[in-house]
């Protein structure tokens, strides 16, 4: 039942390397080159090579070559190994399309060596050589074109694709579907399509299929959805029932299902402007459509008379009517706290916000508020219907409610020091005159800290009568006396 | 549908320890340039290059007197509780309450003893650099899971992905270390009260399985957090959970078998390097009569069709 998308890797393990070695000499060497760094496999390969030498009658020349190859491999000196190995193996580097063991003329080897430099990771170098100065999509495409044009048989395309996949983030094309399709196009067409039922039954060209799956997996990881062109390419390369096409089908089945699943969606491109970003994140965390965003200060750079450059950070705050009402009811003898910074993640960017909050009310100060049922006649504020309830109608959880104290306002700023936040508080004071009487304490951290002391959602849940509340507030406002000298100017730093 | 019946059979083989479950979630199954290995018996994760432990089975057991005495005390207390609970009703609740139950709080965090029911792990077990810690938050009433995520893969030549942090509940045990399961067949919704920092999490439900190759099967769904200072009530119907095995979605899907739930876990792996935090007030299950969906994914056709 566990058919994994990556199950072709499991299939590969049934492919016994030594047996294959004897039949197809250069395919083995091909694998040897790939595994060059691994000492263990080198030793194994060396043993296999000895067998191979016994079985096949090699020419004296090539035997000497391989002898030279074996020595450094067994002595375990990686540097030496790279060089010698490369010299010999360069030309053996065969695509499976023309994989048949045959001795290789020496002049071919030399010619090959001149063309490419002596490294195991040839295709990494190809990328480095072509894109020396700028790494863009255009240069990436040029590398792929160079590879495609270099050889009709596309020798070493599996290694090339692996190298290209690894280089994609560097070139900034990891989310580009066109580039993925172009990479898939590197595979030779119709060579790996199984032609009879036996081939179809076994894992036909496992390395190539694995590579194709890997490419699709990288697309999946970066959230790139394949299109019809990808499918056509995959069918052309691996046939209709290969592992890559299965992987494609899985992606096409699950991706659309989970595409719009996030109840709090974040735009793919976050706004560049800091004020816009703050506005977006504050409305996200406030979770109240009535909450009003206020920009207290725009970011600007001034040059004072003495020539100093003064950068003013942005200060953006949010406050909802219910929060204002809560703040208006705050007991002025108890302090309010400015706390922060708390982290908020929007995809891969982290922004920080600050809170204005108070400690929970002590139990003796809590007053049960009764709505006057006749305050609003066409919109009953309290429903006390004696419905005939079933025995099993209790849907509440038997958990004690948390009381963490109310949140009065939130803000985001470019610089989280006390002077900047003071600006926010004095801005808030225009609408919340009570702040003039309340001592304000600053509890600021250098780093992000644990969230504590948020209201129990009271400000966001209890808002059926928001409009009436707002009216009330407006009527109340004239009564409040505004003190001219706020005490927060000597905020106590804790 | 013969499979649900299978789970009711007695388990032939005990599962591996819970700690090792979590770390296998995000392992890649393809390693491009090395020879893939597939063991016949899926054993616990062993880091590449680490030698096999050369110990006889009894050498791993701790034969100490104090441990034995503690075990006797603990197990007999549990046994006594089991006997006395039977007299009250099923699961220690009166029958009436048991039958009319619409909601149940499974885990809440009201003290340090609740933290002992959880295991935290991160990719540092496979050689990564993430860190995750668990503690009670400042009001001592909620759980606070925090740490840093780092998705740099370990340099062992095989592991390709890294960067996860996980919290998983421990297997609940009855007396003499018999497994105890949660039976949630009366409920259809998972109800959580969380406060996160905007990161998406994944909720994993582990159920009891019969065959050993199914032991890493877990049912997963996403938990999106809003961020900010307010708590968030999340209701996830069980019909939405899909079957995964070692971090891969399976082709053949079926609803969660709710009769034998072992564990619940929370995994973070959103590839955004940096600090994270998640607060959980309680985890409960409820019966939502408005929700009638049995399974959210197609079952009539296998995907992809073979």
From TrEMBL, chain A:
It is found in: Cytoplasm; Mitochondrion; Nucleus. Keywords: Cytoplasm, Immunity, Innate immunity, Mitochondrion, Nucleus, Transit peptide. The keyword Nucleus applies. Residues 447-494 are annotated as: Disordered. One of its GO terms (cellular component) is mitochondrion. Coiled coil: none annotated. Residues 458-488 have a biased composition (Basic and acidic residues). This is Evolutionarily conserved signaling intermediate in Toll pathway, mitochondrial. Its main location: cytoplasm. Residues 320-445 form the ECSIT C-terminal domain. Belongs to the ECSIT family. One of its GO terms (biological process) is innate immune response. The lineage of its organism: Eukaryota, Metazoa, Chordata, Craniata, Vertebrata. InterPro entries: ECIST_C, ECSIT, ECSIT_N, TPR-like_helical_dom_sf.
UniProtKB/TrEMBL annotation, chain B:
Pfam families: CIA30 (PF08547). One of its GO terms (biological process) is mitochondrial electron transport, NADH to ubiquinone. The keyword Ribonucleoprotein does not apply. It is found in: Mitochondrion. One of its GO terms (molecular function) is unfolded protein binding. Residues 107-280 form the NADH:ubiquinone oxidoreductase intermediate-associated protein domain. InterPro entries: Galactose-bd-like_sf (IPR008979), NADH-UbQ_OxRdtase-assoc_prot30 (IPR013857), NDUFAF1 (IPR039131). As part of the MCIA complex, involved in the assembly of the mitochondrial complex I. This is Complex I intermediate-associated protein 30, mitochondrial. It comes from Sparus aurata.
């Amino acid at each position: 039942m566990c058919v994994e998308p990556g199950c072709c890797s499991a299939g590969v393990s049934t492919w016994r390397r030594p047996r294959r070695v004897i039949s197809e000499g250069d395919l083995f060497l091909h694998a040897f080159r790939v595994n060059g760094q691994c000492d263990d496999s080198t030793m194994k390969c060396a043993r296999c090579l000895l067998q191979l030498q016994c079985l096949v009658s090699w020419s004296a020349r090539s035997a000497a070559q391989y002898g030279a190859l074996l020595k450094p491999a067994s002595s375990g000196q990686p540097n030496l190994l790279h060089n010698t190995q490369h010299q010999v193996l360069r030309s053996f580097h065969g695509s499976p399309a023309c994989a048949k063991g045959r001795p290789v003329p020496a002049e071919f080897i030399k010619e090959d060596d001149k063309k490419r430099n002596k490294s195991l990771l040839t295709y990494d170098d190809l990328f480095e050589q072509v894109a020396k100065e700028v790494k863009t999509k255009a240069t990436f495409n040029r590398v792929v074109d160079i590879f495609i044009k270099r050889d009709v048989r596309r020798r070493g395309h599996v290694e090339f694709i692996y190298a290209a996949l690894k280089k994609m983030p560097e070139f900034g094309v990891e989310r580009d579907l066109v580039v993925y399709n172009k990479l898939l196009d590197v595979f030779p067409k119709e060579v790996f399509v199984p032609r009879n039922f036996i081939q179809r039954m076994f894992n036909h060209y496992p390395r190539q299929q694995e590579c194709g799956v890997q490419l699709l997996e990288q697309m999946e990881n970066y959230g790139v959805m394949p299109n019809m062109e990808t499918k056509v390419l995959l069918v052309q390369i691996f046939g209709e029932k290969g592992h890559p096409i299965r992987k494609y089908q899985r992606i096409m089945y699950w991706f659309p299902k989970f595409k719009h699943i996030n109840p709090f969606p974040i735009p793919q491109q976050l706004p560049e402007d800091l004020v816009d970003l703050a506005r977006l994140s504050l409305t996200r965390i406030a979770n109240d459509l009535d909450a009003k965003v206020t920009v207290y200060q725009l970011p600007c750079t001034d040059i004072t008379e003495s020539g100093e450059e003064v950068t003013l950070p942005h200060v953006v705050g949010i406050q909802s009517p219910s929060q204002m009402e809560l703040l208006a009811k705050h007991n002025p003898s108890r302090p309010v706290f400015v706390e922060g910074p708390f982290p908020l993640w929007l995809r891969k960017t982290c922004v920080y916000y600050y809170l204005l909050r108070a400690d929970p009310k002590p139990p003796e100060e809590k007053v049960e508020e009764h709505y006057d049922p006749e305050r609003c006649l066409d919109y009953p504020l309290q429903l006390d219907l004696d419905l005939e309830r079933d025995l099993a109608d209790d849907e509440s959880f038997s958990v004690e409610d948390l009381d963490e104290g109310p949140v009065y306002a939130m803000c985001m700023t470019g610089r989280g020091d006390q002077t900047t936040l003071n600006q926010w508080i004095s801005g808030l004071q225009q609408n919340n005159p009570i702040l003039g009487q309340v001592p304000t304490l600053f509890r600021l951290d250098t780093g992000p800290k644990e969230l504590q002391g948020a209201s129990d959602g009271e400000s966001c849940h209890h808002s059926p009568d928001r409009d009436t509340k707002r009216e009330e507030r407006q009527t109340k406002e004239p009564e409040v006396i505004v003190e001219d000298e706020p005490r927060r100017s000597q905020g106590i730093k804790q | 549908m013969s499979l649900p019946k299978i789970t009711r059979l007695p388990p032939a083989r005990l599962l591996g320890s819970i700690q090792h479950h979590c770390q296998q979630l995000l392992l890649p199954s393809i390693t491009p340039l090395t020879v893939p290995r597939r063991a016949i018996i899926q054993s616990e994760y062993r880091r590449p290059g680490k030698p096999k432990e050369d110990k006889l089975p009894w050498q791993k057991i701790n034969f100490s007197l104090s441990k034995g005495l503690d075990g006797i005390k603990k197990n007999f207390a549990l046994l006594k509780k089991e006997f006395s609970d039977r007299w009250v009703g099923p699961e220690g609740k009166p029958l009436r309450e048991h039958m009319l139950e619409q909601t149940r709080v499974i885990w809440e965090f009201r003290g340090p003893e609740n933290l002992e029911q959880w295991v935290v792990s991160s990719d540092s077990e496979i050689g990564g650099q993430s860190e995750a810690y668990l503690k009670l938050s400042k009001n001592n009433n909620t759980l606070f899971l925090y740490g840093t995520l780092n998705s740099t893969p370990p340099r062992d030549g095989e592991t390709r992905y890294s960067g996860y942090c996980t919290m998983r509940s421990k297997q609940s045990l009855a007396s003499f270390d018999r497994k105890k399961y949660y039976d949630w067949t009366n409920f259809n919704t998972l109800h959580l009260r969380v406060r996160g920092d905007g990161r998406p999490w994944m909720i994993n439900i582990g159920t009891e399985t019969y065959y050993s190759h199914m032991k890493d099967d877990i049912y997963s769904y996403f938990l999106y957090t809003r961020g900010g200072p307010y708590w968030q009530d999340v209701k996830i119907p069980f019909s939405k959970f899909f079957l995964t095995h070692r971090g891969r979605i399976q082709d053949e899907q079926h609803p969660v078998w709710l009769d034998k739930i072992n564990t619940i876990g929370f995994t973070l792996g959103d590839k955004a390097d940096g600090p994270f935090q998640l607060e959980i007030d309680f985890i409960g299950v409820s019966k939502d009569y408005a929700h009638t969906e049995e399974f959210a994914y197609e079952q009539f056709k296998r995907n992809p069709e073979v």
